[in-house]
Design brief:
heterotrimer; A alpha/beta (235); B mainly alpha (308); C mainly alpha (311); B: 308 residues; mainly alpha; ABC transporter involved in vitamin B12 uptake, BtuC; two-stranded antiparallel sheet; 71% helix; C: 311 residues
């Protein structure tokens, strides 16, 4: 298996004259937990949108596990082994928790056992028959993560997964991430404690381009990064 | 009649159609633009305008001009009030849910249409126009190598039809001024842009919606009052204007007044021309399929902006 | 045997017995209700399960109706091949119209399907030499037989309708509980999420629509065959709205909702025709009241409130 699972070359997105992302070259080694950080408006969600196919790139190419996926529609990229959670939680509100996970598992070739396993793992087994819309926001977010897990993805992209979670849930999330083996993880995060405690490597975006890349310690010490964040650190 | 005069006649008839259509379609466009709902009963409000005009003209029984002016003032107000009530009672109850609104307005369509059938009856009833003199129109021909005018037999227009075109134009200009220059118009446009912000600024959004819905219906009713001396009042007369209004609004781009006017001109003129030279059924089939194709391949219409 | 299947078979058995028990008038009504329920079940697949608000289904119903009746009337085709022609016509029409219309969503989809249905209706009027337009034509009694069974008798008509109704109910029941059917529900609930789970939403919608349209064509062909009449009125827009009405009343997204809705409305129309000719007025009032106070329909509300396992 190749060492690199995801790579982009010159990935750019222009909206009517505004460059949301400019010429991003990005390399993600297999099995790594990578955090993507940057101030608001830096272009993180746009970049990730272009990776999974939700947003059409203006220019540039994306390679996933040795395959050029630049022109594949989103559903085909997902089917290749990518899971994605939305920045604003998006689940099937009208359906039960169980059915939500089952829909994810079914598409990826899982079965009842997969569903039961995932529900146990994220702690939602006792709510399996509840309507997803009746869950608290935090639980909905966890459900969405569970749906991603049910796909047994090779690459798991999470867009601000801990936003809206309670302290205890954030701690559970960190433990969950660290427990995932054989899954490459790309996290967009604002919560610095999550970033520093789970990420092995960090990419910093600012104004649509890559500002810096490095280990958590290197990034913490990087003055450009500090300046970009105006010296504030999110707790 | 030769081709030239025939074409001119078709275009004049088309201009009248376009004038009425612009007015009617504008009603649909305003409602969708501000409220983001599709009113499938729009054609029935049009029809009500014509039917009420007939009742007023017949009841007053005096000089047609008096009855006509009364109808033009009263019918749109009545229809608008009915529409505003329907908005308050029904649409606000279902919170403008897009799918439920479509279903509810379909229901409203049948209630109004069949209710009219039960009271007004299945016959088409005429209304006498307030004035109606025939104005022959000139055409050119070459006599001794010089251009000369002559009056082909059959090429004429009535003074009333000219009035319809002028009146429709006047109402549309008044509407445009209202939307862009008055405070009420500003409130409507603000609510269209961002209804939650508007509410935060103390704008009574539900009242605005009821008024807008009423305004849309009133515009359609006005168009029908203008047209009823030319056509007749009939309980099924709302179907064609509904379809044509949809077509105009789609092609012109939702919520755009200039777009609606241009599209109405296009549709009205071409409908007139095609109907004169081909069978009306073929014209309708072509128009219907053309609209479907426009929606399929260019959903923002000809002049609208792409929705997010 | 699971409860849903037992329920479906129970309903079919009850309908089979009903013929012996009911007076002729009601048996006749029930035959008509069953055929229209086939149409409504087909519509339910597209609207209730996939969330596609189409106003164009009269086109598919009409394609089946004319496919069968035109070949029988003008080409002398026997019943079974005529049925095949009807199904193929409906399938092709739905495939083409669907491919175009599904490039749009929501309101635009509704309008596009409405336009196509309108164009179809006008075309039926245009070719009135063969279709006899609004007036329509009657299929000769002698042709309406299968394998010696006369479909023009009350009993032949009833059981033919029942067989097709049963087949459709069981087929739809199977589809909606299969992975395919569940993916349609996912699309209805949250299209973006379904896409990001890897579902090919466009293709699935098209497949659902083609099945829906073909079964609508089946209903149209059955109607023409059993009641011996084909007319342009069945391809007109109000006929697109009737299945929407039946499905909403009975419960969109339930398997038996279409039957319940069709039965209810047909009896309502029947009773009100003593009072007024304007039966569509009743339809209008029911639609408004339904969408205001009972948006999930009769069986849909029942399922949400108590009987959770109702298919």
């Amino acid at each position: 298996m190749a060492a690199v699972i995801l790579q982009t070359w010159g990935l750019t997105k222009t909206y009517a004259g505004v460059q949301a992302n400019t010429d991003i070259d990005f390399t993600l080694p297999r099995g790594q937990i990578r955090a993507l950080i940057g101030p608001n408006g830096a272009g993180k969600s746009t970049f990730v949108g272009m990776l999974c196919g939700r947003i059409e790139a203006t220019r540039g190419s994306v390679m996933f596990d040795g395959q050029d996926i630049s022109h594949l529609p989103a559903h085909k990229r997902i089917a290749l082994g990518i899971a994605y959670t939305f920045q604003i939680t998006s689940v099937f509100g009208g359906l039960s928790v169980h059915e939500n996970v089952a829909l994810a598992a079914r598409r990826a070739g899982g079965n009842e056992a997969t569903v039961a396993g995932v529900l146990a793992r994220v702690g939602l087994s006792d709510r399996a028959d509840q309507s997803a819309a009746d869950l608290s926001y935090g639980h909905q977010r966890i459900l969405e993560i569970g749906m991603g897990l049910a796909q047994s993805p090779r690459l798991f992209i999470l867009d601000e997964p801990t936003q809206g979670l309670a302290e205890s849930e954030v701690a559970e999330f960190k433990a969950l991430i660290r427990s995932l083996k054989d899954t490459t993880i790309l996290l967009i995060e604002h919560n610095m404690s999550v970033v520093m405690e789970t990420a092995e490597y960090i990419t910093v975006l600012n104004h649509g381009a890559v500002l810096a890349e490095g280990t958590p310690d290197e990034i913490r010490a990087n003055s450009h990064v500090q300046a970009a964040y105006l010296g504030t650190e999110d707790a | 009649m030769d081709f030239g005069p025939h074409l001119m006649l078709a275009m004049l008839e088309g201009a009248v159609t376009a004038a009425i259509l612009a007015l009617t379609a504008m009603g649909l466009s305003v409602v969708f633009g501000v409220m983001r709902v599709v009113n499938v009963a729009h054609g029935e409000f049009y029809m009500l305008g014509a039917v009420i005009a007939w009742y007023i003209a017949t009841t007053l029984g005096t000089h047609p001009a008096l009855g006509f002016v009364a109808a033009l003032l009263i019918a749109p107000v009545l229809v608008g009030a009915l529409a505003a009530t329907a908005d308050r009672l029904i649409l606000q109850h279902i919170n403008y849910d897009p799918e439920r609104t479509i279903v509810a307005t379909i229901g409203l369509l049948f209630i109004i249409q069949q209710g009219t059938l039960m009271t007004f009856g299945p016959d088409a009833r005429p209304v006498v126009p307030p004035f109606n003199s025939r104005i022959p129109l000139p055409w050119v021909e070459w006599v001794d190598d010089k251009m000369a005018f002559y009056y082909p037999w059959g090429l004429s227009i009535t003074s009333y039809k000219l009035f319809v075109i002028a009146a429709a134009a006047a109402i549309l200009i008044a509407l445009w001024l209202f939307m862009t220059r008055t405070r009420a118009g500003l409130i409507m446009r603000a609510t269209q842009q961002d209804s939650q912000m508007a509410q935060a600024f103390g704008i009574p959004v539900s009242r605005v919606y009821a008024l807008v819905f009423g305004l849309g219906a009133a515009l359609a009713a006005m168009g029908a009052v203008l047209v009823v001396p030319i056509q007749q009042a009939h309980y099924l007369m709302g179907a064609d204007p509904l379809l044509l209004s949809f077509i105009v609004v789609i092609i012109g781009g939702l919520g755009s007044l200039p777009g609606t006017v241009i599209a109405a001109l296009l549709i009205g003129l071409s409908d007139g021309i095609i109907s004169v030279f081909f069978s009306p059924t073929v014209a309708k089939i072509t128009a219907t399929l053309a609209v479907a194709m426009v929606l399929v391949f260019r959903p923002q219409g000809l002049l609208g902006k792409k929705a997010h | 045997m699971d409860r849903a299947l037992v329920l479906h078979l129970g309903v079919i058995a009850a309908l089979a017995l009903a013929y012996a028990v009911l007076p002729a008038y009601h048996a006749g009504n029930l035959a008509r209700i069953m055929v229209l329920a086939i149409y409504a079940m087909a519509y339910n697949l597209a609207f209730g399960y996939t969330g596609l608000l189409s106003l164009g289904h009269a086109l598919f119903f009409g394609a089946g109706m004319y496919g069968l009746s035109l070949s029988m009337q003008h080409l002398g085709t026997p019943v079974l091949p005529a049925f095949a022609i009807a199904l193929i016509s409906a399938a092709i029409v739905t495939a083409v119209v669907g491919a175009l219309a599904l490039r749009t969503k929501g309101v635009a989809f509704m309008i596009v399907t409405l336009m196509f249905a309108q164009a179809g209706y006008l075309t039926a009027l245009y070719f009135s030499t063969w279709t006899r337009g609004e007036e329509g034509f009657v299929l000769p009694q002698a042709m309406r037989q299968i394998a010696g069974i006369d479909l023009t008798t009350a009993m032949g008509r009833y059981y033919a309708a029942l067989v097709l109704f049963a087949a459709t109910l069981l087929l739809i029941g199977h589809i909606v509980r299969s992975p395919f059917g569940r993916s349609l529900v996912a699309i209805r609930e949250n299209e973006a999420r379904a896409t990001m789970l890897g579902y090919d939403v466009q293709r699935l919608k098209w497949q659902a629509l083609v099945i829906s349209g073909t079964i609508s064509g089946l209903a149209g062909a059955t109607f023409a065959l059993l009641f011996g009449y084909a007319g342009a009125g069945f391809a007109a827009v109000p006929y697109s709205i009737l299945p929407l009405l039946y499905v909403l009343l009975g419960g969109a997204g339930t398997t038996l909702g279409p039957l319940v809705g069709a039965a209810f409305m047909i009896y309502l129309f029947d009773l009100s025709s003593d009072i007024t000719d304007a039966y569509m007025l009743i339809a209008g009032v029911v639609l408004v009241l339904l969408t205001m106070f009972l948006p999930q329909g009769i069986l849909g509300t029942l399922r949400a409130r108590s009987v959770r396992w109702l298919p």
